[in-house]
Amino acid sequence: MTALLPTIDSPADLRRLPRTDLPRLADELRHCVLDNVSKTGGHLSSNLGTVELTVALHYVFNTPEDRIVWDVGHQTYPHKILTGRRDRMPTLRQFGGLSGFPRRDESAYDTFGTAHSSTSISAALGMAVAARQKGEARHAIAVIGDGAMTAGMAFEALNNAGVEDCKLLVILNDNDMSISPPVGALNRYLAQLMSGRFYSAAKAGAKTVLKNAPPLFELAKRLEEHAKGMVVPATLFEKFGFNYIGPIDGHDLESLIPTLENIKHLDGPQFLHVVTKKGRGYDKAEADPVAYHGPGKFDPQVGLVPVATSAKTTFTQVFGQWLCDMADKDTRLVGITPAMREGSGMVAFHQRFPQRYYDVGIAEQHAVTFAAGMACEGLKPVVAIYSTFLQRGYDQLIHDVALQNLPVVFALDRAGLVGADGATHAGVYDIAFIRCIPNMSLACPADERECRQLLSTAYAQNHPVVVRYPRGAGVGALPGCDLDTLPFGKAEVRRQGEKLAILVFGTLLAPALQVAEKLNATVVNMRWVKPLDTELLAQIAQTHERLVTVEEGCIMGGAGSAVAEALQALQFTRPVLHLGLPDEFIEHGDAAQLLALQGLDAAGMAQSIRQRWPD
Predict the structure, then answer these.
(1) How far apart are CA 276 and CA 554, in angstroms?
(2) Which helix or strand (DSSP H or E) is residue 68 part of?
(3) Of residues 198, 208, 194, 138, the one with CA closest to residue 166
(4) pLDDT tens-digit profile of 1-50?
(5) What does DSSP assign to residue 97?
(6) Which of 392, 414, 452, 468 is catalytic?
């Protein structure tokens, strides 16, 4: 048969197909996602799970006139393929290529940028209310999944949406529950039955009758668990003012399309609960959706293969080992993550200290204040969080931790540019937004060994301290196994030169040392942005004519700004060149390539210095 997908350049083409062709199209779309992600890397499990839902939404609704907001945005590859970007999928997440998330400047079908989570209901509600206010009869649809319903913002939006009379549809893509074939066939018909008095009576009777038949009793327990999933959400979301429908099988087009067509004609806010399976259609991803959540390049026939262990330990691994070692030493230590156990290197800690490990879900605000509460009671919380995600807990960082001067350690992963995930995930603002908060301290380790030492130093303090470190490995400095600390707030001279001094904050120390060899410059490993080592800074200013500051963060308000402020306070007048990231969002691409484009590799630093001081 002739392939269908090559004939689909827009949802308008999709809507011209007979419904009987849609399952075949979905199969081709799933293969297209798998083929492309295996060649570029990217998010896989979640996208394989949204194929039928994507087809059904674009088939039923008049997109882009009807707005779809995807949340989390990494489940939109099928959406990109059906909306005219199929030929560009080989450029996914590469410099100058397609983003791995929805972007308004990439397509009219990407109605809202959603690279973080739990914003879709708020955004879609805003769109629906705007349509009502403008007298437009379009729909706004929020597709929320991958745990995004765990965040408080989603429920704030639900609370607001329930009192608005507008064309809003919220679709909960429940992809943590897999539907076995028997339940999948029955769940369309059992929701109302299971919520009645018959269900309650039958449940009690079945427990008595079936106890002597263990296999049947186990089956009854499983059916009860699924039935609860049908009843409890209905009660919850209807209390918010929604008309609740479901749950239905999110891979069954014969359920999805008629249901969506009926919903189109209903008034007021609607809530559709669909159940999908991550990795659907690719058995290896179905079996291990976590491993296939964001794989690199791989052969789909073979699947993921163990990668030879690198000689270099990543900063994330350094943190994970340090956390376990410190927990062995101090029983007060507790580890907290907002749904990033694997990404933050906490798997081993979870396995070894399950009673001291807390995954609070996608709820960064709660994670910060939860840690503050623990610190109030004498525990020593360590919050492992990506730099870009701490932005979501900024109010709590100020009011609940810093204002009360509580001893919480923040292990800030993914500081600086992160590569393929792009601007939404880059950790480039933490230096600027942390150093202005009273009581907060901020350390920037230059290598893996120093990262471990500064984590220990931070843990030894009796006030909040942040240790920021990048994704991946550094220069390969072995971190060791001790828990030694470094002097608090003190920098060190790594190379002694003349006239020119380069002050480095973090892992750009290695290229700065290369530059210094060519220019005979002094290099200072600053280590701390706050407190700044003003004593050493004064000595450097006295003995050098020119200063350069280097950081993998925004220049505005960053570490270089801290140096300039300190020099002014010390009444030193010296020309200072600030090297860092400009006042613009840095797009996705290879991390090393992006650093070079911003002049933060050795060649770029040398060029910037020579341009500033040609003599």
Answers:
(1) 40
(2) strand 67-71
(3) 138
(4) 789 999 999 999 999 999 999 999 999 999 999 999 999 999 999 999 99
(5) S
(6) 392
Reduce the DSSP state of residue 170 to 3 states and report it.
strand
Q: Can you give the C-alpha Rg of the chain in angstroms?
A: 27
Nearest to 440 by CA among 428, 432, 448: 432
pLDDT for 402: 98
Select which of 364, 448, 450, 551 is catalytic: 364
507 near 551, Cβ under 8 Å? no
- Residue type at position 230: M
Token pair listed for 510:
């290695």
pLDDT (tens digit per residue) in 226-256 = 444 444 566 678 888 899 888 889 999 998 9
Looking at 30, 167, 278, 527, which residue is catalytic? 278
Query: What are the structure tokens assigned to 237, written together?
Result: 């979301």
d(CA 505, CA 526): 5
Q: What is the pLDDT of residues 274-290, one digit of tens each?
A: 989 889 999 999 998 88
Tokens 């008595």 correspond to 208
Q: Which residue type does 79 have?
A: H
Residue found under tokens 């001094």: 501
Residues contacting 311, CB < 8 A, separation 6+: 476
Strands (E), 422-520: 441-443, 465-468, 492-495, 499-505
Is it the case that residue 183 has pLDDT exceeding 50?
A: no
CA dihedral 171, 172, 178, 182 (to 10 degrees): -50
Residue type present at position 334: V
Q: Are 159 and 150 in contact (CB under 8 A)?
A: no
Lay out the sheet containing 168-174: strands in order across: 67-71, 140-145, 168-174, 270-275, 243-249
Give the span between the Cα atoms of 370 and 413, in whole angstroms: 19
Active site residue 364: yes
What is the Cα–Cα distance from 466 to 453, expressed in whole angstroms? 13
Q: What HEC string does 350-398 produce? A: HHHCHHHEEECCCCHHHHHHHHHHHHHCCCEEEEEEEHHHHHHHHHHHH
Q: Could you say which DSSP state residue 419 is in?
A: S
Q: What are the phi and psi torsion angles at 444 (to 5°)? A: -130, 90
Q: How many residues does the chain have?
A: 615
Per the CB < 8 A criterion, the answer to whether 418 and 471 are in contact is yes
Rounded to an integer, what distance in angstroms lies between the CA atom of residue 142 and that of residue 516? 53
Question: What distance in Å separates the CA atoms of residue 89 and residue 31, rounded to the nearest whole number?
Answer: 13
Say what angle helices 22-40 and 51-60 make with each other, to 10 degrees.
Answer: 130
Q: 218: Cβ–Cβ under 8 A, 6 or more apart, which residues?
A: none
Per-residue pLDDT tens for 343-357?
Answer: 999 999 999 999 999
Q: Taking the CA of residue 198 as centre, how many other CA atoms within 13 Å lie in the half-sphere pointing to its CB?
A: 6
Tell me which residue has tokens 């995954």: 359
Q: How confident is the model at residue 151 (pLDDT cuts 50, 70, 90)?
A: confident
Q: Is 392 an annotated catalytic residue?
A: yes
* Angle between helix 534-543 and 559-569 (nearest 10): 70
Check whether the bond before 531 is cis (ω within 30° of 0): yes
For residue 228, the model assigns a pLDDT of 43
